[in-house]
Amino acid sequence: MLCFTHRDTQALGVCKTCGKAVCSACLRQVEGGIVCSEACENEHRLMREMNHRAFKIYGIGTKQRGLPNTVIAPLLMGTGFALGAALLGVTDEHNMPIVLFFLLMSSLMWLGAFLAWRKYRENGINV
User: How are beta strands 28-30 and 21-22 bridged, if at all?
Assistant: First the structure.
């Protein structure tokens, strides 16, 4: 492979930004590879900064703190159903079908939270 700029010189690598072949005279060493020009060096630096910001925003590469939302939401909804069942059961004994429905929904929500938590554990995600 020949250098993009110097057509008679053997290339040593490929620019990380634009993909052009570069020789020893053209290449610039940057963190994570080589580039062919100052413009490509600036573009490469901006892309690395953008990726690092995205990693921080989305928590990529960091240990997750606490339970994920797919576990917390069903836990909270199940607790809400259980509290609703308790309040309805205390206020009027004629609400028994509704109380049983609320207890069933509460159990299903808690089961969903448990299954989601177990899936996270099986996949090696620390929760």
Answer: unpaired
- 22-28: list long-range contacts, CB under 8 Å, 24+ apart: none
For the chain, the straight-line distance linking the first and the last C-alpha, in angstroms and rounded, comes to 49
CA distance 19 to 38: 14
Residue 98's domain comprises 69-122
Tens digit of each residue's pLDDT (9 = 90 or more) over 34-51: 999 999 999 999 999 998
**Pairing mode, if any, of strands 21-22 and 13-14?**
antiparallel
Q: Which residues 6+ apart lie within 8 Å of 94 measured at CB?
A: none
Question: Based on the structure, what is the number of domains in the chain?
Answer: 2
pTM for this predicted structure: 0.49
**Token code pair at residue 83:** 């509290």
Bridge partners of 35, per DSSP, are 28
